[in-house]
From TrEMBL, chains A, B:
PROSITE patterns: FAD_PCMH. It catalyses: (R)-malate + A = oxaloacetate + AH2. The keyword Nucleus does not apply. Homodimer. It is found in: Peroxisome. Residues 83-262 form the FAD-binding PCMH-type domain. This is D-2-hydroxyglutarate dehydrogenase, mitochondrial. It comes from Diabrotica virgifera virgifera (western corn rootworm).
Amino acid sequence: MFLKIFQNECLHFFKPNNFKGIGKRNLRNRPDFTKNRYKVTRGNYNYLREGHINYFQALLGHKRVIMDLSDLEKYNVDWYTQVRGCSSIVLKPKTTEEVSQILSFCNKQKLALCTQGGNTGVVGGCVPVFDEIIISTELMNDIISLDENSGVLVCQSGCILQNLDNFVAEKGLIIPLDLGAKGTCHIGGNVSTNAGGMRLLKYGNMHGNVLGLEVVTANGEIIDCLSTLKKDNTGYHLKHLFIGSEGTLGLVTKVALQCPPRPKYRNVAFLGVQNFDKVLKTFKFLKAELGEIISAVEVIDTPTMDFINQIVGQTSPIGDYPFYLLVETSGSNEQHDEEKLNHFFEAALKKFLVLNGTVASEPAKIQALWSIRENIPNGFKICSSKMMYYDVSMPLSNYYSIVNDVDEFTKGLSERVFGFGHLGDGNIHLQIQLKDDLTDEIKKHIDPFVFDKILSYGGSISAEHGIGIIKQKYMNRLKTVNTLNLMKDLKSLLDPNKILNPYKVIV
Amino acid sequence: MFLKIFQNECLHFFKPNNFKGIGKRNLRNRPDFTKNRYKVTRGNYNYLREGHINYFQALLGHKRVIMDLSDLEKYNVDWYTQVRGCSSIVLKPKTTEEVSQILSFCNKQKLALCTQGGNTGVVGGCVPVFDEIIISTELMNDIISLDENSGVLVCQSGCILQNLDNFVAEKGLIIPLDLGAKGTCHIGGNVSTNAGGMRLLKYGNMHGNVLGLEVVTANGEIIDCLSTLKKDNTGYHLKHLFIGSEGTLGLVTKVALQCPPRPKYRNVAFLGVQNFDKVLKTFKFLKAELGEIISAVEVIDTPTMDFINQIVGQTSPIGDYPFYLLVETSGSNEQHDEEKLNHFFEAALKKFLVLNGTVASEPAKIQALWSIRENIPNGFKICSSKMMYYDVSMPLSNYYSIVNDVDEFTKGLSERVFGFGHLGDGNIHLQIQLKDDLTDEIKKHIDPFVFDKILSYGGSISAEHGIGIIKQKYMNRLKTVNTLNLMKDLKSLLDPNKILNPYKVIV
């Protein structure tokens, strides 16, 4: 029975009557198949056959080979319901050796694979496009060691980020990465996508924080670069090949992570600013004044604040201003941190950099201020059928120009254009609220303008979300021919049969 | 005349009468040729011929093609006088395009190359082994841009580290890298060796601080990954291939570097500690108490302090203790930083973690305390004929064990064994003072023991200095077969004719 379904490439697979209570998703939210929406042609891979299934079941046992249609849905659709594949099998290895055997077998059999962690990616990177075999890291969730002297944590790649942070918190340490999806995402996915998030400003990105990796390449070979040392200059620094390559060069099985001391005290300031020029001047001033204790600098524009007010009833606690800054400090001395932040705030008021503001030290008030920022994505998700969003990196001098440009270009089509995000990292989330529901035609009209503009400013069309399948077609425009060719050569070297996460990043 | 010399592979090249006032080096210090000392066989490269020289002179002009024997010496011997090549030509390109043309030409002609920055490496990585053409980055020293809002500096790879730091200091920024060799080393060399140094504890390594690179690969292709963005997740993160690969995969031509705000105030504590267990406990305590303002934690043992006292008259300002810790803080508020450090010091005394100490805030006293640490390498250099030194990374729990092990093993041969270094990064400099001058026989006896011990503790035989030629023969023992094969595959992919820095790192 299975074989027919596989060979029909999704045609009959997701019939409504196959669904039986599938978590929070419902049928109305199911997107069109990725292959149709993004016009992808299936690669020349083998189809899954009974012999393959027998092999996997012998290796993992029946319980760790998932083929029940109702169980498969959540692996085939992403959290944002943008992409949809039609894999008919999920494998759940527990060990590196099992991963190695699966990959070795699939490589010989030319079976395509898609590795999935918490399935929280937003560019369709961890969801199959066709019938790729899904390898879920759900059961690879052992914490292997924590060296309390050095702060080095070693764990399997399927550990959930929040669980790791809870674990190291007990020892006075912090995971140097914090995402909205932390309760679901896996550390292996964070590594594979070079995830950014809220703490990047303070602790830097995964390339700086990952001390070592264990990775299995397409042919099943285990690459052991699981160093736990801060300094280790012996040979090529291979781990970086796998950080941010979105599972297309290898499957991360273990991670060694540097965990800094957990800051003891947090303070937050919420500030009203007159224009974007003053936002930049305030940012420069606060870097000089608060230096080592800054842990987040977020910006929110008026359209975003108004929208969140309308949709979720969230208001500005300081009245209306053209721009708002949320500044967080994290330090080791409560009194010092408060003094610094208050001094900065008073000086910024005197210099007319900020017009108004409030400073919080108590956890409840801090949480209330952060909830303004955190409510933004929730608000946008409610109106998602009319929304277009872009994850953009910009040089700071033109950080907000892209919002004005897009506002001008989409006049008549858009209701409002919003800009908010991690100012401290040059990362702006650009959102367009359309008058009508988003169609592929509108997307085709607006996307090229936005991407061209971003590139003309020297920005990046994917700050922290990666390329996945959704931005794949733009890769040729983002890089020089030499650079693209080197990426393709690396792919061919590490995965000659192109079985790892096909159709994504580099094709 | 030249051709004969080249083809004799160094036999006649460094005759004493070729030397005419060559800086601070003298003939007594000239080491044996690397090819003899390390028993290297010349690769199947072409020899330099008149046609090649004509090509280089046409491309660069006569002044930027150095062939005068007296001028060549300083490029053929390293600073520590450990290695010696016999190149007869130094090329001094100014632009990426010139580098591209040189590499393209040499690749076609199968001429081997050795790139050299400030020639401050300590593993023979930037000095030719045979007659490799030396490409000096001395004239690639343009600072291209500094974005004061984001702190992003873009420059050519031949800029001297100290010059860059002076330049950004004027704008209130700091280069996140500080080395003893900063007045001489080039930023391109720092990138290519993933240089560590004094500020790594605070700012992390080059993988975290380099935002973008421009690199020329062996065939002359320019790889443009000169992003100036903190977040840019578009495709493979190619720049990391070239960070730490010691010039064997490509020649770095431009660097984009993230420069944090320059700390305004420094404080230093110099502490006496009873044993290594208490050193570790003090380190853990100071991380918790001083958190975000710690910028250096250096350890010095008694044999090292005694030696420096004898050799350069440097004494401990706090009396004699088994171990000394030098702790530096860098922050944005003078009073806060002093308070934190004083509070830590008093609490550490009360807890009997430290036995005595002194704290300094005035620049002159800070400099005096740092000079104790900085005088150590100078002292050892004076007795270099009897010295063996190792740059080791160790898990903190066994950081000092290696010193005791080596002391025990070398009884009868050694006068003293010393341990000092960057405790905060797990990086110990292990030195052995022999009773007699170091010979190759002694080296062959001691090296394997030291390296075996380091590896048995899960340490690294090269923390920050790299592999170069000096540690090349150990590579097979440091990595698994799969890992080594992947390194070799990367070398073959990027430099199929193996013209870039041959005999080093991976052969």
